[in-house]
Specification:
Elements lengths: L3 E4 L5 H5 L12 H9 L3 E8 L2 E13 L2 E12 L8 H15 L4 E3 L7 H9 L30
Parallel strand pairs: 4-5
Antiparallel strand pairs: 1-2, 2-3, 3-4
Length: about 150
Protein backbone atom coordinates (compact mmCIF):
# COMPACT_ATOMS: atom_id res chain seq x y z
CA UNK A 1 0.00 0.00 0.00
CA UNK A 2 1.37 3.40 -0.98
CA UNK A 3 1.30 6.17 1.62
CA UNK A 4 2.05 9.75 0.60
CA UNK A 5 3.72 11.91 3.26
CA UNK A 6 3.47 15.67 2.78
CA UNK A 7 2.77 18.99 4.42
CA UNK A 8 -0.88 19.99 4.51
CA UNK A 9 -1.68 23.37 3.04
CA UNK A 10 -4.63 25.71 2.61
CA UNK A 11 -7.05 23.94 0.33
CA UNK A 12 -6.67 20.63 2.21
CA UNK A 13 -9.59 21.38 4.55
CA UNK A 14 -11.88 18.72 3.06
CA UNK A 15 -9.10 16.13 3.15
CA UNK A 16 -8.57 16.78 6.86
CA UNK A 17 -12.28 16.75 7.65
CA UNK A 18 -12.61 13.28 6.13
CA UNK A 19 -9.61 11.69 7.88
CA UNK A 20 -9.80 8.00 8.73
CA UNK A 21 -11.31 6.94 12.04
CA UNK A 22 -8.88 6.96 14.95
CA UNK A 23 -6.59 9.66 13.57
CA UNK A 24 -7.91 12.79 15.25
CA UNK A 25 -9.18 12.79 18.84
CA UNK A 26 -12.36 14.54 17.70
CA UNK A 27 -14.03 15.24 14.37
CA UNK A 28 -12.12 18.13 12.75
CA UNK A 29 -14.16 21.33 12.57
CA UNK A 30 -14.15 23.31 9.33
CA UNK A 31 -13.53 26.67 11.05
CA UNK A 32 -10.61 25.39 13.15
CA UNK A 33 -9.12 23.49 10.21
CA UNK A 34 -9.17 26.63 8.04
CA UNK A 35 -7.65 28.71 10.84
CA UNK A 36 -4.88 26.15 11.44
CA UNK A 37 -3.98 25.79 7.78
CA UNK A 38 -4.06 29.56 7.27
CA UNK A 39 -1.58 30.24 10.07
CA UNK A 40 2.00 30.18 8.73
CA UNK A 41 3.42 29.11 12.10
CA UNK A 42 1.23 26.02 12.36
CA UNK A 43 2.36 22.93 10.46
CA UNK A 44 0.70 19.62 9.74
CA UNK A 45 2.46 16.73 8.06
CA UNK A 46 -0.08 14.18 6.85
CA UNK A 47 0.03 10.60 5.67
CA UNK A 48 -2.46 9.89 2.88
CA UNK A 49 -3.54 6.44 1.71
CA UNK A 50 -6.39 5.82 -0.70
CA UNK A 51 -7.31 9.52 -0.64
CA UNK A 52 -7.72 9.71 3.17
CA UNK A 53 -5.48 10.96 5.92
CA UNK A 54 -4.28 8.01 7.98
CA UNK A 55 -1.86 9.93 10.18
CA UNK A 56 -0.49 13.33 11.07
CA UNK A 57 2.19 15.19 12.97
CA UNK A 58 1.23 18.67 14.11
CA UNK A 59 3.70 21.30 15.15
CA UNK A 60 4.18 24.97 15.81
CA UNK A 61 7.34 26.94 15.23
CA UNK A 62 7.74 29.92 17.41
CA UNK A 63 10.20 32.69 18.05
CA UNK A 64 11.01 34.69 21.15
CA UNK A 65 12.82 38.02 21.49
CA UNK A 66 15.91 36.36 22.98
CA UNK A 67 15.87 32.89 21.39
CA UNK A 68 16.12 31.38 17.95
CA UNK A 69 13.08 29.66 16.47
CA UNK A 70 12.06 26.30 17.91
CA UNK A 71 9.69 23.65 16.62
CA UNK A 72 7.23 22.26 19.15
CA UNK A 73 5.83 18.95 18.01
CA UNK A 74 2.36 18.86 19.47
CA UNK A 75 1.01 15.49 18.44
CA UNK A 76 1.70 12.38 16.39
CA UNK A 77 -1.21 10.14 15.42
CA UNK A 78 -1.58 7.15 13.12
CA UNK A 79 -4.80 5.29 12.36
CA UNK A 80 -4.86 1.80 13.85
CA UNK A 81 -4.91 0.37 10.30
CA UNK A 82 -1.51 1.92 9.56
CA UNK A 83 0.38 1.54 12.83
CA UNK A 84 3.69 -0.35 12.91
CA UNK A 85 4.34 0.41 9.24
CA UNK A 86 6.84 3.29 9.74
CA UNK A 87 4.16 5.87 8.91
CA UNK A 88 4.74 7.75 12.18
CA UNK A 89 8.50 7.76 11.65
CA UNK A 90 8.17 8.97 8.05
CA UNK A 91 5.90 11.82 9.12
CA UNK A 92 8.16 12.76 12.04
CA UNK A 93 11.21 12.80 9.77
CA UNK A 94 9.33 15.06 7.35
CA UNK A 95 8.34 17.44 10.17
CA UNK A 96 11.93 17.59 11.47
CA UNK A 97 13.19 18.35 7.96
CA UNK A 98 10.58 21.11 7.72
CA UNK A 99 11.84 22.53 11.01
CA UNK A 100 15.37 22.62 9.58
CA UNK A 101 14.08 24.50 6.51
CA UNK A 102 12.43 26.97 8.87
CA UNK A 103 15.82 27.40 10.58
CA UNK A 104 14.51 26.19 13.91
CA UNK A 105 17.26 25.78 16.48
CA UNK A 106 15.69 22.61 17.85
CA UNK A 107 12.50 20.59 17.90
CA UNK A 108 10.90 19.17 21.01
CA UNK A 109 7.99 17.02 22.04
CA UNK A 110 6.63 16.04 25.41
CA UNK A 111 5.46 12.50 26.08
CA UNK A 112 5.01 10.17 29.00
CA UNK A 113 7.27 7.22 29.77
CA UNK A 114 4.07 5.18 30.03
CA UNK A 115 3.62 5.62 26.24
CA UNK A 116 6.02 2.98 24.85
CA UNK A 117 5.12 3.61 21.20
CA UNK A 118 6.02 7.30 21.52
CA UNK A 119 9.18 6.52 23.46
CA UNK A 120 10.34 4.13 20.69
CA UNK A 121 9.40 6.55 17.90
CA UNK A 122 11.19 9.57 19.33
CA UNK A 123 14.29 7.60 20.32
CA UNK A 124 14.49 6.00 16.85
CA UNK A 125 14.31 9.45 15.25
CA UNK A 126 17.32 10.60 17.29
CA UNK A 127 15.54 12.30 20.18
CA UNK A 128 17.23 12.29 23.56
CA UNK A 129 14.98 11.65 26.57
CA UNK A 130 15.49 13.78 29.64
CA UNK A 131 16.66 11.70 32.60
CA UNK A 132 14.03 13.05 34.98
CA UNK A 133 10.31 12.63 34.44
CA UNK A 134 8.63 15.60 32.83
CA UNK A 135 5.89 17.55 34.50
CA UNK A 136 3.15 19.25 32.56
CA UNK A 137 1.12 22.03 34.10
CA UNK A 138 -2.16 22.84 32.44
CA UNK A 139 -4.04 26.09 33.00
CA UNK A 140 -7.78 26.37 32.50
CA UNK A 141 -8.09 29.70 30.71
CA UNK A 142 -11.82 29.22 30.33
CA UNK A 143 -12.45 29.46 34.07
CA UNK A 144 -14.90 32.08 35.26
CA UNK A 145 -14.08 34.53 37.99
CA UNK A 146 -10.54 35.47 37.08
CA UNK A 147 -9.38 38.39 39.18
CA UNK A 148 -6.79 39.53 36.63
CA UNK A 149 -7.91 42.22 34.22
CA UNK A 150 -5.96 42.77 31.01
CA UNK A 151 -5.92 46.46 30.19
CA UNK A 152 -3.16 46.22 27.57
CA UNK A 153 -5.57 46.73 24.67
CA UNK A 154 -7.35 49.73 26.15
Amino acid sequence: MTVEIRLARPGDERLIETAAAGVFDHVPRADLTAEFLGDPRHHLVVAIADGRIVGFVSGVHYVHPDKSAELWINEVAVAPTHQNQRVGRSMLDRMLAHGRRLRCRCAWVLTDRANPAAMRLYAAAGGEPEPAPSVLFEFDLDAAGSSVVDRSST
